[in-house]
Amino acid sequence: MAGIRIIPRLDIKGPKLIKGIHLEGLRVVGDPHAFALDYYGQGADELVFMDIVASLYQRNNLADIIQRAADQIYVPITVGGGIRSLEDVRTMLHSGADKVAINTAAVARPALITEVAQRFGSQCMVLSVEAKRKSGGGWEAFVDNGREHTGLDVVEWVERAVALGAGEIMLTSVDQEGTRRGFDVDLVRTVAGCVRVPIIASGGYGCPSDLKQAADAGACGLAIADALHWRRAGVAELKAHARAAGLEVRL
User: Fold this and answer.
1) CATH fold of 3-249, please?
2) What CA dihedral angle connects 63, 141, 139 and 53, to 10 degrees?
3) Quick check: pTM over 0.85?
4) Rounded to an integer, what distance in angstroms lies between the CA atom of residue 137 and that of residue 134?
5) Any catalytic annotation for residue 237?
6) Residue 55: is its pLDDT beyond 60?
7) Please, what sign has the CA dihedral across residues 228, 232, 236, 239?
8) Given 45, 46, 51, 130, which residue is catalytic?
9) Exactly one of 11, 45, 46, 226 is catalytic; which is it?
10) Helix 154-164 to helix 185-192 angle, to the nearest 10 degrees?
11) What is the DSSP code string of 118-139?
12) How do strand 248-249 and strand 3-13 relate by DSSP bridges?
């Protein structure tokens, strides 16, 4: 049985940690630095920071937050939102990030995926996918925090992005995000069956059985926000549940 990474996801708007449902109806949670330190202390395997309005305003404001976190946190940090160029990637890596998650700019100019992978390594180039179910079946990729259609089929887009150099996929189900109804297991299984890079499932964690279902579908990382932010579960508790379900978990 493959191991699983428990990855707190911190969505940022301005200086605040926020949380929504279906990426909308955002509520302020608190200070992202305090929450990041807490999750690190609890044993998080990695952290994800997403500037959720960056693409809308064509900028990323996370450099200071990442720099502050990286001074005290020694697990891999992924940062996303508004990253549009190699210079943006370089800024984030110099601030202390280990990986960058790119969505909108990759859709607009897929060659950016190859440029990032060649310059900084494919392990650094995370394709961020915001997926919504299509009425006729399958999923469409969205950008701008789930606001804008791309017309791209998620599976076809992921296959293309991996061929271009993406080394990891952060797969967010907009339909499930913030609902506590579980991950979109069909989405994870379908994408995992088409590519051979690590997949982080994001959106929908509700109860312990969701961990094994997502892992069995092919996720090797689980991005969790709602349950952690609102103290419905802690990192150690999630790992204990995963271990009890027979999953390999990092100490």
Assistant:
1) TIM Barrel (3.20.20)
2) 50
3) yes
4) 5
5) no
6) no
7) negative
8) 130
9) 11
10) 40
11) HHH-GGGEEEEEEEEE-TTSSE
12) parallel
Query: Position 118: which residue type?
Result: Q
Contact assessment for residue 163 and residue 133, using Cβ atoms and an 8 Å cutoff: no
Token look-up 């802690």 returns 234
Q: What is the rounded CA–CA span in Å between residue 88 and residue 66?
A: 13
**Is the distance from CB of 1 to CB of 247 less than 8 angstroms?**
yes
pLDDT of 134-155, one tens digit each?
999 999 999 987 889 999 999 9
- Asked if pLDDT for residue 24 goes beyond 80, the answer is no
Answer yes or no: 177 catalytic: no
SS3 of 102, please? strand
Mean pLDDT of the chain: 93
Token readout for 78 is: 């992924």
pLDDT band at 22 (very low <50, low <70, confident <90, very high): confident
For residues 30 and 181, is the Cβ–Cβ distance under 8 A? no
Place of tokens 């940090």: 77
